[in-house]
């Protein structure tokens, strides 16, 4: 499978309308713009990133951010098991350290794990040294809980910069964005309606973003209700399969050592 820059602009930025939290840190970062709030802008900064996977097969890629979270991750894993689906989980290092049993559950059930930074900071306004530190700290957290990494990275909110690109390249990871975000549609259409709208927008190689994490402590603390995302998941899987698409996990580079 190759990588293409063709994408869906609206869905790629929809999650930005649904995410809140972070107190003083978030308020500061949100005022630091301009941010890469669309897939087109992200790929201009990181042209080597995964936006949509180029494939001749009717396959799409389901990804989860911000976990692991004991409130939502177990239910997500059970729903994926019931449907026989493997997905990709971009985990926050701080959360991985707090809930190592959930990290092992994700891995043992056949899912792919990617790096979502140590503290979920907005990276696009940070100097390269701090960006680099956030990414490598997450890798160390994975190592400390004895889970293999996949070479995949996703910046919080998809906000990227030259410093992010340089850090990712230096560490040997590959940035991964998305074409559509479930939460942007759940807000307006509910779980079932969101699933139908996401499935109706799919093309081969679409990368779908949703969330299994709502709680985060630390410098960018957040408390977000993800119950709508969990409720949408079985509808989404059914809607994807009704259109004769297969759901697969993303495959990254060799593990980083």
Short description:
The protein has one domain (2-248): Alpha-Beta Barrel (TIM Barrel). The protein has helices at 9-13, 23-30, 39-45, 73-83, 93-98, 100-108, 128-144, 162-171, 182-201, 227-242; strands at 2-4, 52-54, 59-67, 88-91, 112-115, 152-153, 174-175, 180-181, 207-211, 215-216, 222-223, 246-248. Strand 6 (152-153), helix 8 (162-171) and strand 7 (174-175) form a beta-alpha-beta unit.
Query: Helical region count?
Result: 10
Counting structural domains, the number is: 1
Mass-distribution shape: globular
In CATH, the architecture is Alpha-Beta Barrel
Helicity, in percent? 40-55%
Give the full name of the CATH homologous superfamily: Glycoside hydrolase/deacetylase
State mean pLDDT (0 to 100 scale).
89
**CATH C-level name:** Alpha Beta
Task: Give me the strand/helix succession.
Answer: EHHHEEHEHHEHEHEEHEEEHE
Return Rg in Å: 16 Å
What's the story with the biggest beta sheet? Answer: 6 strands, parallel
- Alpha-beta content class: alpha/beta
- Span of the ends, CA to CA: 24 Å
Amount of beta strand: 15-25%
Record field, number of beta strands = 12
CATH topology: TIM Barrel
Uncertain runs: 1-11, 17-31, 252-257
Organism: Nostocoides australiense Ben110
InterPro entries: Glyco_hydro/deAcase_b/a-brl, NODB_dom, Polysacc_deacetylase_ArnD, TAT_signal
Pfam family, one: Polysacc_deac_1
Domain NodB homology: 58-248
């Amino acid at each position: 499978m190759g990588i293409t820059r063709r994408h869906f602009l609206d869905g790629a930025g929809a999650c930005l309308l649904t995410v809140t939290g972070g107190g003083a840190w978030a308020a500061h970062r949100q005022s630091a713009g301009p941010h890469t709030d669309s897939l087109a802008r992200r790929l201009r900064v990181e042209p080597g990133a995964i936006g949509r996977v180029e494939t001749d097969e009717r396959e799409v890629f389901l990804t989860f951010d911000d976990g692991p979270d004991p409130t939502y991750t177990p239910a997500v894993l059970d729903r994926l098991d019931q449907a026989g689906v493997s997905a990709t989980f971009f985990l926050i290092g701080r959360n991985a350290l707090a809930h190592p049993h959930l990290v092992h559950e994700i891995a043992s059930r056949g899912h792919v794990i990617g790096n979502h930074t140590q503290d979920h900071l907005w990276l696009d306004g940070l100097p390269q040294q701090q960006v680099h530190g956030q990414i490598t700290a997450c890798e160390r957290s994975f190592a400390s809980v004895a889970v293999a990494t996949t070479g995949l990275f996703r910046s919080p909110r998809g906000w990227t910069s030259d410093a992010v690109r340089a850090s990712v390249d230096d560490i040997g990871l590959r940035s991964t964005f998305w074409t559509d975000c479930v939460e942007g549609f759940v807000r307006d259409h509910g779980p079932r309606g969101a699933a139908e709208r996401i499935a109706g927008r799919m093309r081969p190689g679409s990368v779908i973003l949703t969330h299994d994490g709502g709680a985060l402590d630390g410098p960018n603390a957040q408390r977000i209700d993800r119950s709508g995302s969990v409720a949408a998941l079985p509808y989404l899987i059914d809607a994807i399969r009704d259109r004769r698409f297969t759901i697969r996990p993303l495959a990254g580079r060799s593990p980083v050592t």
